[in-house]
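User: Assemble these into one structure.

Assistant: Restating your components, then the assembled model:
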Amino acid sequence: MLRLQLIAIIRLGIKSLMLHKLRSALTMLGIIFGVCSVIAMLAIGEGASYAAQEAIKKLGSNNILIRSLKPPEAARQQQGGGGPRGMSLKYGLTYADGARLQATIPGVKRVVPSRIIRENVRFGRTEVPCQVIGTLPFFAEVTGVELVRGRFLSDLDERHQNNICVITAGLAQRLFPTEDPLQHSVKVDAFYYRVVGIIRETGKAEQRTQAGKMEGQPLDNNVYIPLSTSRTRFGEVLIRRTAGSFEAEEVQLHQITVQMQDTAAVETADPQIKTLLRRFHDQNDYELIVPLELLREAEATKRRFNIVLGSIAAISLLVGGIGIMNIMLANVTERTREIGVRRALGAKRRDITLQFLVETVVLSIGGGLIGVLVGMLTPVIVSMATDMKTIVTLWSVLVAFGISGAVGIVFGLYPARAAAMLDPIEALRHE
Amino acid sequence: MASLASQPEWMIRTVGLQKTYVLGGENRVHALRGVDMGVRRGDYMAIMGPSGSGKSTMLNLIGCLDRPTGGQYFLGGDDVSQMDDDALSAIRGERIGFIFQSYNLIPQLTVLENIQVPLFYQGHDLRKTLNRCRELANLVGLGDRLDHRPNQLSGGQQQRVAIARSLVNDPLIILADEPTGNLDSKTGAEVLDLIDRLNREGKTIVLVTHDDKVAARAYRVIHMKDGVIDREVINRPPPTPPAS
């Protein structure tokens, strides 16, 4: 019975709203924009933080990365020409650092040193600038490299300083468009390296810019060779020729990836590693990157972002709600006569309250539904137009829709109550 | 109505009915100063009087749209003078049919839906009462216009819809407030004929009017002045009510 009556009241509400189509549509617009902006903004925010978080996750949340940095003082010296010309600049992480980390820091699972050298890689006449990364076989497990074909580096390669390499799929595509890479060798500097495996790129070009300082990570155009091979073929002193002169650098290791047993160990190890390195390095020639920390920061940023976006959207919903209330108050005044008639014909106060409340809720829920549709469409359009990643989450849709319903009730209650409290005689006399 | 036989002789009975409006401070208006009157079942009574005589107040009180500030009002045997708002709403819906000067149909509803409004607030299943609504529409001669909106009807037709609406709950009395005030004399006469017919079929009617010709159709006319009944004129003897 009650359900039937409710359906009848809802139908009546829709009918009354249809009487002023333009007015109802304009009133809904406030809610539509509100709901749409909540969903779209959260989708864009979610998408942005997702991309950043994925890039960080690639580094491994159980890992700590230590990178060699050219110390700023030394760099200035070299640039100004005041430094010892022709002499090599020595800085960065050493093999000893790796050994000390492995030996002293509790909770360390593996320490993977790597050397990263920029060189052109050739096959036939094709030449591609690459990062030649000399590393140990663990590298694959520690950074979660995904093998497409063949194999990764092995212990035997390391021991025999084999001239073999593993390349990324993108590089394979560029060097060997028609041939099978595993049948060939690539030339780096003066030596040939046989291709034994192909791995999937873990990053895409767009993520590279967002990841910022994550160069040297397994993005595309990487060539992996055994660490021992890297040491013998390239030597400790790296010479880079620049217009007319050359710079020589002596860097033992460019990066050490420390894999910890779990995330808890990461947090305790972070300061310990810092202390350890500080003791053996006079200059600030390394940096520590803790993906877990970056991840936390990214999450905190996302939370702040969501709060800001959420409040903007909430304000627009509030404005929409005030718009609804305004129209409903005008509506009540306009339909005073109708209210009087209904009261005379037996409507109780709560019948009138319900009628107007239902009308407001129909407006706001209707606006909410349209807003959800538009709000789910907007991120798609944004993604297509700007290349930004967007993610529409279920909870943002539910929250936005729920708020639109709540706005209807909150802002509908006062006008509905005002309508119900009208004196029937006055209402009937109203022109 | 099965309970009709058990209804008391007086459909409406007022005892010393008073209504005073407080306009703020000591400023009071005594609209009714103690009215004693009764309406029997099947009666047809007209109320006349100049504006300010209290006849509108009287009608509002009879229609349970307002509460008296003094005296008692019995409607169908129950003292309704001290009922609360919800109870009064229920009484209006169950026992009173209103016919207004300006028809007061709800513009967004069709003829059929307008007739259904009182049923709706009584909690009836509107699908089950559809036949009754159709019959009433036929009775007032609008059976072929159930889907029309009020603005598609003439004044006389609208007033006939209002009459059908007033009958739908099978009320004890029908209150008509200047039902022909907005109609030309010909359609007004048609509407009054319809009301006469309802009375012949047993409905109790109370009608407020300015027009002597309209009042002449009633069995008796009470003239009000300054909040009291000035005089009562019997046009014709009312039919003897069935013995209770």
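The beta strands of chain B are 10-22, 28-40, 44-48, 70-75, 78-79, 96-99, 173-177, 204-208, 220-225, 228-234.
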